[in-house]
Specification:
The protein is mainly alpha-helical and 151 residues long. It has helices spanning 50-57, 61-74, 98-107, 113-133, 138-150; strands spanning 9-12, 15-20.
Length: 151
Amino acid sequence: MLNIDKDKLRDLPGWERNAPVPICMGGDYRALTFCCKPGFSLTFGFKCRRDEKLLELGITPEEFIRIKEEFSKENDWDSEFTCFGSISYCCMRSGGCPRRDVALVERYSGMTLKEIMKTYFEKKKKLSRKILESVRDPEKREKIKPYLDLL
């Protein structure tokens, strides 16, 4: 059974009650869905734990990029507005990210902002599952099983 600190969970539209905070803020493996593209310097790089978590799961940076970019193609999330050219690399900022939000409004025109954010977080939850399901090592799969059960 998992013992996740309630301070490390959020209630988001489309991912109610147990969405993880970002990895850099202490979130669990599911939060890899909110991480950006490996290989680029980050403003908050000093507290980024993406590479550490990928290593723990046996996912290479290249595999992580492939998963996110395939998901982006499957969900029409490629965007010239966002960092790294895809909404799949966007974070969960509650105040909103100008680049992410412009891309989402363009992608889901005709929806209210509330509907857009619900769709965004539903898809981020699906991407989280896809990332965790890519873990192949049986020992590491056992480690992530409780997190998959939360998805």
